[in-house]
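Working notes for the structural subgroup meeting. M.R. asked for a predicted model of this chain before we commit to crystallization trials. I am recording the input and output together here so anyone reviewing the notebook later can reproduce the run.

Input as submitted:
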Amino acid sequence: FADRSSDEWGNGPRATPIMDGDRVYVQSTSGEFRCLKLADGTTIWGISFEKDFGVKFLGYKANSGTATRRGNNGSGVVDGNVVIVPVGSTEGASLVCFDKLTGKQLWKAGEDEAAYSSLIVATLAGVKQVVAFTATALIGVDRQSGKLLWRVPLKSGANRHACTPVVAGDTVSVASQTIGLVCTKIGNGGAEASSAWVNKDLKINLATPALAGQHFYSQGADKDFVCVEAKTGAVKWSQPGFGTGKRDYASTIVVGKNLLVLTEDGQLLLLAANPEKYTELGRLQVCGGTWCFPAYANGHLFVRDSRELSCLSLLPPKLVPVN
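Returned structure, recorded in token form:
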């Protein structure tokens, strides 16, 4: 299960493990996907993107901007009794659906290479579908049958689509450093896609926007943090000087009425999800340089940098009665 990728982004797997009952699903940079027993890590079943679907991992020196160059970073998704994986084969297997317990292939769909974006499952215009931001398009696939429902071509420099699609009602929004922030409306029984709006100035590179209420919050271009109206794409406010990293990256999690933002240089900020103005409630240096998205659960935040994994308690201290 060793990875074969090493560049300025670091070594090792970059896709997020998926926990499901007594199993965990993991994916390597070079395209090995496995279902493991959570108790001891033994393999229950697995596939190889290269051996099973012909998607050869070329490594970062290759002249390609897709996952075959920088690594298979996009995470799959578990839904009900299946797991869908962004294999990225141009021979009819952009996405592949497997029985999550046995690994039996149930369907495959699409002819696009994979980029670096993760998959989501959503109901759009009344139809449950898998949405993927591939190297060259945004696509929707019927969750049950694998039928391609719609496809919106979206080309960007080096095919570097890294942001995960964000659903708001019957719209899907995606972003990249080339196309800006693009919102697509899904209609006609889930089978038709049309442009809702485009903000070409919001050249969001790596930071998936977070939806809180009717607004997106994200690290924008030039180290600005932005609030964007989800219905129109209009910028409500922009906060300059946000972060000191070189990649213009910060991850954002919505927690109640607030935002948890982890910057590339390891600062954790607590912001109010306030569309009227930038409102900072606190900040703390919690780790070293990181491109890893943190995980929030039950009042705790898990963060990882190149050295260690840390767990932060975000719960208020409990008052202990004095006898």
